[in-house]
Amino acid sequence: MADFIVGLTGGIGSGKTTIANQFFDLGIELVDADVIAREVVEKGTDGFKKITSHFGSEVIDDSGSLDRAKLRIKIFNNETERQWLNNLLHPLIRSHMLNAVENATSPYVIMIVPLLFENGLDSLVNTTLVVDIPPHEQIARTAKRDGVNSTEVKKILNRQMSRELRLKQADNVIDNTQSPEELRNTVQLLHLKYLAQASSA
Length: 201
Ligand code: ADP
Hints:
- The protein has 2 domains: 1-28 and 106-201, Rossmann fold (3-Layer(aba) Sandwich), CATH 3.40.50; 38-104, no CATH class.
- The chain contains 9 helices and 5 strands, in the order E-H-E-H-H-H-H-E-E-H-H-H-E-H.
- It has helices at residues 16-25, 33-39, 46-55, 68-75, 79-103, 135-146, 150-159, 163-169, 180-200, and strands spanning 5-9, 29-32, 109-112, 127-132, 172-175.
- Adenosine-5'-diphosphate (ADP) is lined by residues 10, 12-18, 141, 145, 176, 178, 180, 183.
């Protein structure tokens, strides 16, 4: 079990995945909140059963899996239903993430959580690492990666925490306007710092 958890966060397209993969290349295990959020509602799980008995068969797709797009429509503009779903999912995701940390064998773990501060998951981690790039760059990179237009990305960006507020809560910040090669050096330095912190934790 890893005793030291680094919470990695940042806005959409800031470079969380890219940076997490560089830590992984150094032998550090990753716990990804987005992956776990999908696992806890997989066909046959408790999460799946509770959601489908609450919302009905409409939220099940042709293959018998949860139709996440339909579910999003159900909770869109319905605060009560959104709250119901959050009350079910948040504790489930939290406990699965902690379980994944318990099974980790690297000296520390990187927990990738897009909404780390928004959802209060910073309480689970020992230190926070924020990936930062200017919004115009964030929009350009996301639009290119996802093949969507900048208006779509701006909508998502507006629903996330502001850059200023996120930076204020960060223990460490990675400026991801660097080249991927320069980034490796920055990640290496942080890695040494986290190894030291983990061994004295
Ligand atoms: P996130 O996981 O935060 O949404 P990604 O790691 O997927 O962000 O990065 C968004 C896009 O930007 C990807 O296409 C990625 O390849 C690219 N990218 C990440 N870091 C850099 C960088 N330092 N320079 C140029 N492009 C980058």
